[in-house]
Amino acid sequence: MLDTAFDQNNESISALSFDEFKKIIVNDYRTALESRYVSLLGRKEVLTGKAKFGIFGDGKELAQIAMAKVFRNGDWRSGYYRDQTFIFASGISDVYRFFSQLYAHPDVEADPSSAGRQMNCHFSTRVLDDQGNWLDQTVQKNSFSDISTTGGQMARVLGLGLASKLYKQNRNLDYLSYFSNKGNEVTFCTIGNAATSEGVFFEVINAAGVHQIPAVISIWDDGYGISVSNETQTTKGDISEILKGFQKEELTNGIEIFKVRGWDYAGLCETYEQAASIAREKHIPCLIHVTELTQPQGHSSSGSHERYKSQERLQWETDFDCIAKMKEWIQSSGIATDEELDQLDREAKDFVRQEQKRAWADYIRTLTLEAKEAIDLLARIPNEKADFAAKKLQSMVEPSLKEVYGQVRKVLHELKGSQTEGRRELLDWYKVKQENNEKRYNSKLFTDGVDSPLNVPVVAANYTEDAKIVDGREVLNLCFEENFQRDERLLAFGEDVGKIGDVNQGFAGLQEKLGAHRIFDTGIRENSIIGKGIGLAIRGLKPIAEIQYLDYLIYGITVASDDLASLSYRTFGGQKAPVIIRTRGHRLEGIWHSGSPMSVILGALRGLHVCVPRNMTQAAGMYNTLFRSDEPAIVVECLNGYRLKERLPENVGEFTVPIGYAERIKEGEDITVVSYGSTLRVVEEAAVELERLGIFIEIIDAQTLLPFDKAQLCAESLKKTNKLLVVDEDVPGGAAAFILKEILENQNGYYLLDSQPRTLSAKAHRPPYGSDGDYFSKPSSDDVVETVYAIMHEANPEKYPSMFE
After folding, report:
1. What residues form the membrane-spanning segments (predicted)?
2. Do the Cβ atoms of 390 and 379 come closer than 8 Å?
3. What would the 3-class secondary structure string for 50-65 be?
4. Separation between Cα atoms, residue 39 and residue 17, nearest integer Å
């Protein structure tokens, strides 16, 4: 039954001697035991209070060992947070690092996956060096950073797998040899049976069958999703049964579907070897439904499965525990004696306990050192509050940085403004430590590497005297063409992007010029469009993932927010996915296409650069910057700007617009008006009417919202005008409130005002259909005129008498 199985070095074991064969089996059994004891001990560590929360992979050990046998250097995992056995068996991580993550050790050496930022069983490999440069992915086994979002690991599988397909087909990419060995990689995805009820699962299964990507998708089926059984979760109670329509047949695309029991070690090894071979050699996606798995400790450390499982089910789980069944198989096959197996059991338990203690000791050592420093400094201060704080820290059974710095801060509060002995030393120590804690807990929202967009040189747009006047869409089209000709890594895809060149013609004609492997269509599946971009980007390509309209971003927001936006932060700068999400919005008319949910983006997508160009020339300059850098971004083009006339720069594919810098587009002395995107043209129209009323406004184009106005141009303008209006078409209290906060707080603009700052936004409801609905729902030029005039009236009612009294 193991004739075709492979060991972890991918060597056939069919011709091995008995001793060599036994060594492989015994090693697998040891790995399973160690992983099980990790789960058992890990739960105890949570219940005793040493760790905050725990989730473990007990019951899935044998299937994950079988998967690890066919997982090679260069391959990628996009996994489920119960894959600890696979991680141990593949060598991606180990028991010490598992417990370090369980304790949230804020040291990247102890927890390379996240430096203590993610809960246990959330694994990743580091693919970047300390400067943000790519490491060689082909010489290591790669794991994309796990997320807790149910089913969220599915979306990026498309890009991870499609990258192999593109590297295999496009010889012009051979120079990127540190990302792929000519496409000879497989992406392994794992998901729990209950999570297959999520829409993104079906999106990805469908798209994988269309694209024929080299992927092996495993479903760990233990019969439940927390307390909800398969019969409630899934039609027919069997996910592979209802996926039979996706089964690949001769002369069709589709997927190969396998079904194997999770306690059948030999069957698992054979199934994974077969599926991995099909995916790697034929680029046909495979799905392995691993059934009859167990979950001995229940879903997590927060509850007990005895509450919802019958006694019959619990007894079955005992009888068919995969490790117990493997032990039976080893015994019946005469591979090892009972004494040998008992010895393995003792060794595994001792090893796990030893590594747990080592991880805890190293974690505590870091905390204890800082606690001791704080106690020593507090003891030197002749103050009752300081003495109490020192004694409280000394009495801590288990040190906590929260407790250490909480006590220090309380003492500093007490001693504010005093010259008490020892206060200055404590304060200086605290400031240094706060810088360290900033790095530990608040850094790496962006990679901030050598290729950050903030480091891209500014190149001005050049215009000849006889520069062509063209539609804005033509500026974008030429920008894209020049960049795609320059950089083979660039790709663009989305609904209607390929054949017709997107609904607004930004890519018109480029598929024919560059090929369908560079510019291509997708189905209507926003989650997987963004996920595809994420997977392609981490594998060294430069994707533009197009979401046809800004409103549709809502359908992909979980992937964009939970996976893409947090990737650099949650890996402590160990991974990046410089995908560009391209979309269009603003001034759309109708409830379902209102076009400006900017506050959703600002709230959900911290970790992306948010670009809001006022026209297509500015958009082209931003794309030129982003194409030359390595951090994710979203660019929201103005839907009503594609046919507006613009001058064509002669360096349309080279000039850059700096990310994070506002631009003054009209000088004025009476009031500063800040806006962006299509609404900026409304402000410019209002400026003409206001000048007839004797009011001269200074107009600032934000250009990007994240980051916002790094040079503090808005504050500089306020020094002259002392009045502020922010105009945008998001809901009240949305993006305009965000801009107001940035100016008043971060730029100290509050101190420059001599009147109340104002915002002018859309109504709280979505706009009704039609131009009249737009006029009465979103800021019009008349609204801008009246709001500016009201501010001037408040400041000088004699010069500017009320319009409506």
Report:
1. none
2. yes
3. CCCCCCCCCCCHHHHH
4. 34
Contacts of 387 (CB under 8 A, 6+ apart): 378, 379, 381
By DSSP bridging, strand 704-706 and strand 609-611 are: antiparallel
pLDDT over 80 (residue 4) = no
What is the average pLDDT score of the chain? 94
Topology annotation, domain 453-647: Rossmann fold (3.40.50)
Q: How far apart are CA 698 and CA 518, in angstroms?
A: 43
Please report the pLDDT score of residue 409 as a whole number: 97
Beta strands at 663-666 and 697-701: parallel, antiparallel or unpaired: antiparallel
pLDDT of residue 5: 47
Q: In the chain, what are the helix, strand and coil shares in percent, each to the nearest 5?
A: 45, 10, 40
Neighbour tally for 389: CB within 10 Å: 25
- Contacts of residue 40, Cβ cutoff 8 Å, sequence gap at least 6: 58, 297
Sequence-ordered list of residues with C-beta below 8 angstroms from that of 364, at least 6 positions apart, any chain: 398, 399
* Contact (CB, 8 A) for 99 and 360: yes
Domain boundaries, the chain: 21-336, 366-442, 453-647, 663-795
pLDDT at site 13 = 53
Span 154-169, pLDDT tens digits: 999 999 999 999 999 9
Q: How many helices (H) and strands (E) does the chain have?
A: 27, 22
Q: Are 560 and 581 in contact (CB under 8 A)?
A: yes
Which stretch of DSSP H or E encloses residue 609?
strand 609-611
The helix/strand/coil state of 235 is helix
Residues 188, 123: contact at Cβ < 8 Å? no
Tell me: the pLDDT tens digits for 405-427? Answer: 999 999 999 999 999 999 999 99
CB 322 within 8 A of CB 293: yes
**Which strand ranges, in their side-by-side order, compose the sheet holding 215-220?**
142-143, 76-78, 187-192, 215-220, 286-291, 256-261
Contact 157, 204 (CB under 8 A): yes
Among the residue ranges 58-67, 225-234, 582-591, the one predicted with the least confidence is 582-591
Alpha carbons 111 and 93: distance in angstroms, whole number:
9
Q: Which two tokens stand for residue 345?
A: 């059991």
Cβ atoms < 10 Å from Cβ of 405: 17
Closest CA to 657 of 634, 680, 626, 631: 626
What's the token pair of residue 508? 């018109």
Residues paired with residue 491 on neighbouring β-strands, in sequence order: 543
Return the DSSP state at 734. S
CATH number of 663-795: 3.40.50.920
For 96, list phi and psi in degrees, rounded to 5: -60, -50
Q: Are strands 228-229 and 490-494 parallel, antiparallel or unpaired?
A: unpaired
Q: Which residue type occupies 621? A: G
d(CA 408, CA 378): 8
Scored b (16 or more CB within 10 A) or e, 494-526 reads bbbbbeebbbbbbbbebbeebeeebbbebeebb
Contact 224, 295 (CB under 8 A): yes
* Neighbouring residues of 466: CB distance < 8 A, sequence distance ≥ 6: none
* Bond preceding residue 707 cis, omega within 30 of 0: yes
* pTM attached to this predicted model: 0.95
Residues 6 or more apart from 528 whose CB is under 8 A from it? 154, 155, 158, 200, 203, 204, 207, 522, 559
> Out of 3.40.50.720, 3.40.50.970, 3.30.1780.10, 3.30.1490.20, which CATH number does the structure's domain 21-336 have?
3.40.50.970
If DSSP codes are grouped into helix, strand and coil, which group holds residue 575? Answer: coil
What is the tens place of the pLDDT at every residue in 42-54?
Answer: 999 999 989 989 9
Contact 150, 40 (CB under 8 A): no
The per-residue pLDDT for range 328-364, each reduced to its tens digit, is 999 999 999 999 999 999 999 999 999 999 999 999 9
Q: What is the pLDDT of residues 683-735, one digit of tens each?
A: 999 999 999 999 999 999 999 999 999 999 999 999 999 999 999 999 999 99
Establish whether domains 21-336 and 453-647 are of one fold: yes
